[in-house]
């Protein structure tokens, strides 16, 4: 049997058949598909745009909620901090300031209590503080 | 294609784009089909890949920089689409690319769109035994009768490298055909 020589023998064709009229309709089928894909991609964009409005709205609402919450939290913290600072460092409270918040009765009771030191306390004061 | 720059401008102009693209399809559908069919072997698959190729060409016209010729750019897209098709088909079937190609060649025996004789079928089998690059070069040179310069532009490989690949491919195929 003669040896096959691809370079010098008659060309061996691939053997593929193409269905009749395939190329007659290919161009129109392709253009139809491109048109469909263009339409569907623009639909996708419009759905996405509608979605994006929703997403933006929700994001804005969330930011406002978080902002409001943080504002009140900060206010609360400031009030507590103010009270703490006032108690810790507020050394300008005078007897008059306290007296303003007490009734006449409170004041007389307080006076009585101060004057009624028990004997032990009196001894202690006399021994150690004088 | 004569006056390629002028034709590319027509392809990019929305007013003339549709007609220019149809002209492009008419001119390249047959050679691109042959190129793809040689890679995927089956007609229906070749039809799918050819459509995908032209859709990609259409969608990417605005990105075509004109650094290479229009035809070599389209051939590159067609080659990539065919390779991607084979890769994803092999992955889906859980086989290697080589196993898939062997299977595709075997399927030709019962394919209504294949009327190759014994030696033609044997040649297809022989081609699948080659390394990927040699298969590519052999098909483009032998079946599609392209010039080395054209293949070089499409595959972006030196002409010298292509000649060496083709030489080795021919030797291996002749060995296969003469020993089987």
From TrEMBL, chain A:
- TM spans, by residue? 53-72
What keywords would UniProt list here?
A: Coiled coil, Membrane, Transmembrane, Transmembrane helix
Top-rank lineage group of the source organism: Bacteria
Q: Which residues form a coiled coil?
A: 100-127
Q: What is this protein called?
A: Uncharacterized protein
Species of the source: Flavobacterium terrae
UniProtKB/TrEMBL annotation, chain B:
Q: Which InterPro entries match?
A: RNA_pol_sigma-70-like, RNA_pol_sigma-70_dom, RNA_pol_sigma70_r2, RNA_pol_sigma70_r4_t2, RNA_pol_sigma_r2, RNA_pol_sigma_r3/r4-like, WH-like_DNA-bd_sf
One Pfam family this chain carries?
Sigma70_r2
Keywords (alphabetical) are: Sigma factor, Transcription, Transcription regulation
Coiled-coil ranges (or none): none
Picking any one GO molecular function of the record gives: DNA binding
Look up the record and give one Gene Ontology term from the biological process aspect: DNA-templated transcription initiation
Q: Which residues form the RNA polymerase sigma-70 region domain?
A: 24-90
| Residues annotated as domain RNA polymerase sigma factor 70 region 4 type | 121-173
Record-linked NCBIfam families: sigma70-ECF
* Family the entry assigns: Belongs to the sigma-70 factor family. ECF subfamily.
Protein name, as recorded: RNA polymerase sigma-70 factor, ECF subfamily
**Which source organism?**
Flavobacterium terrae
Which lineage do the record's taxonomy fields give for this organism? Bacteria, Pseudomonadati, Bacteroidota, Flavobacteriia, Flavobacteriales
